[in-house]
């Protein structure tokens, strides 16, 4: 493809009339009777999304099921309630998770490993580690295994995000990322009920109930990893991608080249990583993701305690309301993600979502009425969760080359893990049961996200204007424009 043609197709990709080319330029495209864009997208959706959603769901369950295990006898059996052992065991997961995010995303494209083999293998590995936690007899061994759990899970989220963003055009990706995150969140909402059922096995065996949580859930994870190894799709340009015909693969890769003008096989090098780190927008989107996860983790860890001890709900009602909160967050996030793709903008939505979270957390922290505080909890959770797919899509849209998206998405997920680590400490025990100082800290972090999203949107618009005037070339490609 010549430079002129690359420019024209990139410009077409940014035009609402782009799809008209499929009908008018039959010389460049397969026959429409043979190739249906909607049919191919549905084919990709059904083959890709269910598996990556399931992988993310089990990763969330396996990293957080310690809370259910502790109240089911784990504390007594392993003496976890002595000193700071619980904090050590909990935090070891995040150390490996943070350190291996970016290296994992480099490896998924290196040496022909491929997404299916990589994600399937690490899923089997952390499933085995999860089973191991169910059979150890010391808190030190548990801490070591949770650190390994973090190492293996580190590649799942950034790798899946990288894979999803590789298959879709820039204004198709957020609704898919919303399905990825919100689908897994919805599934996770039922995990405590399932875990309660597993605990009952302990009444009929020599193993305590909490051990069966890890053994059964770890086995399910390992089986799912084998399924992913066999059936998960690879990258669009990979020879391992067999579920599409050669004509269909050609169609997919060409429509992606219109959108980004790139070959996804660009290798990540130390030089390219240094170049990526020079782009402040990469760090801005990482911060936005951090601000979201600090809210989602904090509410996930402590909202049941707030509902029970501060608002006076019963234990059963606290768990039910926490589940309803997740469902509400899924609905709000799905709607906003659809609208964001529809209007082809990210920054204004990030700003609105952060404000929604701030308003909710303000009601939760500073009002007296239980009803208003409950509304605040729902709004805070919805706003924080909705930021996640918006931040991921904004990053993916503005990183043209696959190698840059690999590093950028790894940085985002690493920032998100840091948010989880911070969230576990800012809501201090001495501030309970309302945790006002911690909630105020989250509001402060998300206030910066509001300002940052506004600034980045205006900056992208300014650069797009310069590119329209021919003064600069964005991301090394004539016709490429940043998403605001």
Automatic annotation (TrEMBL):
Coiled coil: none annotated. GO terms for cellular component: membrane. Its main location: membrane. GO terms for molecular function: transmembrane transporter activity. Keywords: Membrane, Transmembrane, Transmembrane helix, Transport. Residues 18-28 have a biased composition (Basic and acidic residues). InterPro entries: MFS, MFS_dom, MFS_trans_sf. Residues 1-10 have a biased composition (Polar residues). PROSITE patterns: MFS. It is found in: Membrane. Residues 1-28 are annotated as: Disordered. Pfam families: MFS_1. This is Major facilitator superfamily (MFS) profile domain-containing protein. It comes from Cladophialophora chaetospira.
């Amino acid at each position: 493809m010549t430079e002129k043609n690359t420019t024209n197709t990139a410009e077409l990709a940014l035009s609402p009339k782009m799809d008209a080319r499929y009908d008018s330029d039959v010389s460049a495209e397969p026959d429409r009777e043979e190739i249906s864009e909607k049919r191919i997208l549905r084919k990709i959706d059904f083959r890709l999304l269910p598996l990556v959603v399931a992988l993310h769901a089990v990763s969330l369950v396996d990293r957080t099921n310690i809370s259910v295990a502790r109240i089911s006898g784990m504390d007594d059996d392993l003496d976890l309630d002595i000193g700071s052992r619980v904090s050590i065991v909990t935090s070891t997961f995040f150390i490996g998770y943070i350190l291996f995010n970016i290296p994992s995303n480099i490896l998924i494209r290196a040496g022909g490993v491929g997404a299916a083999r990589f994600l399937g293998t690490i899923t089997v590995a952390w499933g085995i580690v999860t089973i191991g936690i169910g059979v150890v007899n010391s808190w030190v061994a548990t801490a070591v295994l949770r650190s390994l759990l973090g190492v293996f899970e580190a590649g799942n989220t950034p790798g899946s995000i990288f894979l999803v963003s590789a298959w879709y055009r820039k204004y198709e990706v957020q609704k898919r990322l919303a399905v990825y995150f919100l689908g897994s969140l919805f599934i996770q909402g039922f995990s405590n009920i399932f875990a309660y059922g597993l605990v009952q096995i302990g009444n009929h065996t020599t193993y305590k109930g909490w051990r069966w949580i890890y053994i059964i859930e770890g086995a399910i994870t390992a089986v799912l990893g084998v399924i992913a190894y066999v059936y998960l799709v690879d990258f669009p340009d990979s020879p391992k991608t067999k579920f599409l015909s050669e004509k269909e693969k050609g169609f997919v890769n060409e429509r992606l080249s219109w959108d980004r003008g790139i070959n996804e096989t660009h290798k990540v090098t130390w030089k390219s990583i240094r170049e990526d780190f020079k782009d402040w927008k990469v760090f801005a989107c990482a911060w936005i993701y951090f601000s979201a996860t600090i809210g989602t983790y904090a509410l996930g860890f402590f909202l049941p305690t707030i509902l029970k001890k501060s608002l006076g709900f019963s234990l059963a009602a606290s768990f039910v309301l926490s589940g309803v909160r997740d469902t509400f967050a899924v609905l709000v996030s799905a709607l906003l993600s659809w609208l964001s793709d529809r209007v082809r903008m990210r920054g204004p939505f990030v700003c609105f979502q952060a404000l929604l979270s701030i308003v909710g957390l303000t009601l939760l922290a500073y009002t007296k009425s239980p009803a208003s505080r409950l509304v605040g909890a729902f709004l805070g959770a919805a706003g924080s969760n909705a930021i996640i797919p918006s931040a991921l899509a904004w990053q993916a849209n503005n990183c043209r080359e696959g190698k840059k998206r690999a590093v950028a998405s790894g940085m985002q997920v690493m920032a998100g893990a840091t948010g989880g680590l911070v969230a576990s400490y800012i809501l201090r025990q001495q501030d309970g049961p309302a945790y006002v100082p911690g909630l105020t800290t989250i509001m402060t972090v998300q206030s910066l996200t509001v300002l940052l999203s506004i600034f980045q949107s205006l900056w992208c618009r300014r650069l797009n204007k310069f590119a329209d005037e021919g003064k600069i070339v964005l991301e090394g490609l004539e016709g490429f424009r940043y998403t605001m």
